Automatic annotation (TrEMBL):
Pfam families: FBP_C (PF16571). InterPro entries: EF-G-binding_C (IPR032330). The lineage of its organism: Bacteria, Bacillati, Actinomycetota, Actinomycetes, Micrococcales. Residues 29-185 form the Elongation factor G-binding protein C-terminal treble-clef zinc-finger domain. This is FBP domain-containing protein.
Length: 189
């Protein structure tokens, strides 16, 4: 009786699940999605093995170009449209300028020793004039994994609904921040 009362008044986490999982993308879609890359850059990008990806666990697709160590890419969906950006990192030796800090996208407080400054040329005329925008992101683009980590007892107590709520919020936050950055880079004015 009591338990039922508590249950009835309880907010249910399924009421506001983050929207659908990321749709899988083809090579063609990915190359066509790159907003701040030239046609040549988009054609030359080395893509990851798309068949090996677990799309259902991704909020965005991020990877390093294994043939061009200074180039990385992020693709996500903006209003259902695959939208990607080319990112550069500045460390010529490793290809990535690793540092300590908090990733601006997943804001994970556990993995703080491997984030990198990534810089994107802006799209359109602005980018051709040399304008860039930078952000600290997990070096290996592990944000989606980070936000799905089971919340600790300190964070959520022993309440499964609270754990789910926290995880859903983290996923939604990651998606929003990553999308905002990609949209900003892609603006062509
Ligand atoms: Zn991250």
């Amino acid at each position: 009786m009591h338990a039922h009362d508590v249950e009835a008044g309880r907010w249910h986490p399924n009421d506001r699940k983050p929207k659908t999982l990321m749709n899988s993308l083809t090579e063609k879609q990915i190359r066509a999605s790159l907003r701040n890359a030239s046609k040549r850059e988009a054609a030359q990008a080395t893509l990851p093995d798309l068949d090996a990806l677990d799309w259902a666990q991704l909020d965005y697709l991020g990877w390093h170009d294994r043939k061009a160590p200074l180039s990385s890419y992020v693709v996500l969906e903006l209003d259902g449209v695959p939208t990607g950006i080319l990112l550069r990192s500045s460390d010529a030796k490793t290809g990535r300028a690793r540092t300590k800090g908090v990733c601006a996208w997943c804001e994970d407080v556990v993995v703080t020793d491997d984030v990198s400054l990534y810089v994107a040329r802006r799209g359109g005329a602005s980018g051709r004039n040399g304008n860039t925008i930078g952000t600290l992101i997990c070096t290996e683009f592990g944000c989606s994994r980070n936000v799905r980590r089971r919340p600790t007892f300190t964070e959520a107590g022993n309440d499964p609904a609270m754990r789910e709520l926290i995880t859903d919020r983290r996923i939604a936050g990651l998606r929003e921040r990553a999308a905002r950055f990609v949209a900003e880079v892609g603006k062509t004015r």
